[in-house]
């Protein structure tokens, strides 16, 4: 009988391990997928794609012609050879191959040139062939950076005493209300896909004080724009015992600083590949909703009609204004009108037509919505009644407030939108692994 005692050490090397072996006479093993091949006759330059980057291998063969036939894009190989310094190669070294072992071979040629620096495919083609297009080095780098965004979010909040939670995505009633809900049959009972973890994370503030979650949310909005998805990943947190909604904005500022610092320190190669200049988050300006409207209308001579929300062009101009005036990439727009905020938003005691809420814009695009919540049971019931709503389906949510809740608030960040703005893309689908929009359910 055998017993497993932990992770087995692999004989094959990573790129980081290989760097320590440059110039040694030790024969090593590496594996990976053939990313590209340059056939120079008797010499083959093979680029292997590995999880930690690409690796140049040089294979000379005049007699092992059968082995050469396996050197096709998409084939998975194991090479045995020596690590030789090569300043022009990626990472400054290459593998001089002595033996080749075929691990698997493709059944068909690749439909797009993933080995090229830029594939020059349309977005539609890119998405239709997503399992293959994501193998491109630049495409892959986008989602490594997205990984860093989530890591920065999670590690910072953990350091601030937050507990990570996991809430259900099938529910009986939507947290936000409205008609943009996906309905489904749940064992012959009506159910919905959750638009937000809002109810659950508020309930959990009564348990852990500070909670966060990274999970999908679903919006049945019939938008077909470059900024909307019907399923996206929301980075949510909720925190109790706040003094004001400014505590939430301050915490989010810390989140952005943590993300940027982590990307600078650990994702330099991906930032280089995509030529990304990270936004600044050392100081983030705040401006009231009504004042922001006045500022951009005056400076850009563009009056807007909607008094209760920001139009898309308005968000762009607010971002432009604060970049020009203060060199700010992020901006918090506060005190949104109560009419356009959910029932649980805390109204401003100084003027109940506004709320103690905010959006955070990055480069003129809303990436966050947040604010202080009503924490008093009677006040919550009063606002529900004032809105002409019913408490049906909210019994468990209201239970938390009936038995005492601290002053609290929180926010949700759209991961794909945030990634899109960091990358400098203009379509959120470029920052989504497998987008779900008005017309796309595959792959």
Can you lay out the helices and strands and say which pair or pack?
Elements (H helix, E strand, L loop, with lengths): L14 H5 L8 E12 L3 E8 L2 E8 L4 H4 L7 E10 L7 E12 L18 H6 L1 H4 L3 H23 L3 E2 L5 E2 L11 E4 L2 E5 L4 H11 L1 E9 L12 E10 L5 H21 L1 H7 L11 E3 H12 L11 H15 L3 E5 L12 E2 L2 E5 L1 E6 L2 E9 L3 H10 L8 H8 L5 E7 H9 L20
Parallel strand pairs: 3-5, 6-10, 12-13
Antiparallel strand pairs: 1-2, 1-4, 2-3, 4-5, 7-9, 8-9, 10-11, 11-18, 13-16, 14-15, 16-17, 17-18
Helix pairs in contact: 5-7, 5-8, 5-13, 9-10
Keywords:
five-stranded mixed barrel, elongated, alpha+beta, 443 residues, eight-stranded mixed β-sheet, 30% helix
Poorly predicted ranges: none
How many DSSP helices?
Answer: 13
Query: Which geometry do the CA atoms define?
Result: elongated
**Largest sheet geometry:** 8 strands, mixed
How many β-strand runs?
18
Strand order of the largest sheet: 6-10-11-18-17-16-13-12
- Taking all residues together, what is the mean pLDDT? 93
Straight-line distance between termini:
43 Å
Radius of gyration from the alpha-carbon trace, in angstroms:
26 Å
Helix content: 25-40%
Helix- and strand-based class?
Answer: alpha+beta
Report the β-strand fraction as a percent range. Answer: 25-35%
């Amino acid at each position: 009988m055998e017993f497993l005692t932990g992770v087995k050490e692999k004989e094959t090397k990573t790129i980081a391990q290989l760097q320590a072996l440059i110039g040694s006479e030790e024969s090593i093993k590496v594996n990976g997928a053939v990313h590209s091949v340059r056939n120079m006759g008797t010499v083959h330059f093979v680029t292997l794609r590995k999880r930690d980057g690409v690796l140049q291998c040089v294979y000379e063969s005049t007699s092992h012609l059968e082995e050469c036939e396996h050197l096709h894009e998409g084939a998975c190989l194991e090479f045995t050879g020596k690590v030789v310094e090569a300043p022009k190669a990626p990472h400054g070294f290459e593998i001089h191959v002595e033996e080749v072992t075929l691990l698997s071979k493709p059944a068909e040629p690749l439909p797009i040139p993933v080995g090229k620096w830029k594939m020059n495919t349309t977005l539609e083609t890119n998405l239709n062939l997503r399992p293959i297009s994501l193998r491109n080095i630049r495409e892959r780098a986008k989602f490594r950076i997205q990984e860093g965004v989530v890591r920065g979010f999670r590690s910072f909040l953990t350091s601030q005493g937050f507990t990570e939670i996991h809430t259900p995505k099938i529910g009986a009633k939507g947290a936000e209300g409205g008609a943009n809900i996906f309905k489904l049959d749940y064992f012959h009972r009506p159910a919905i896909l959750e638009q937000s973890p809002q109810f659950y994370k508020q309930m959990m503030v009564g348990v852990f004080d500070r909670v966060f979650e990274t999970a999908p949310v679903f919006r049945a909005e019939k938008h077909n724009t470059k900024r909307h998805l019907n399923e996206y990943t929301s980075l949510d947190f909720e925190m109790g015992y706040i003094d004001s909604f400014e505590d939430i904005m301050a915490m989010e500022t810390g989140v952005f600083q943590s993300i940027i610092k982590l990307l600078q320190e650990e994702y330099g190669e991906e930032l280089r590949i995509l030529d990304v200049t990270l936004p600044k988050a050392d100081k983030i300006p705040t401006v009231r909703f009504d004042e922001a409207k006045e500022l951009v209308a005056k400076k850009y001579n563009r009056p807007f009609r909607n008094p209760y929300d920001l139009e898309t062009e308005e968000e762009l101009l607010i971002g432009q204004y604060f970049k020009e005036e203060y060199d700010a990439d992020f901006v918090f727009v506060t005190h949104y009108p109560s009419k356009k905020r959910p029932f649980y938003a805390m109204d401003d005691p100084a003027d109940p037509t506004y709320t103690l809420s905010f959006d955070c814009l990055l480069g003129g695009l809303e990436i966050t919505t947040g604010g202080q919540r009503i924490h008093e049971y009677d006040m919550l019931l009063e606002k529900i009644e004032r809105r002409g709503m019913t408490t049906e389906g909210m019994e468990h949510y209201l239970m938390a407030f009936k038995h005492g809740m601290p002053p609290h608030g929180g926010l949700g960040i759209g991961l794909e939108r945030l990634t899109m703005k960091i990358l400098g893309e203009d379509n959120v689908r470029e920052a989504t692994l497998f987008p779900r929009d008005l017309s796309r359910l595959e792959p």
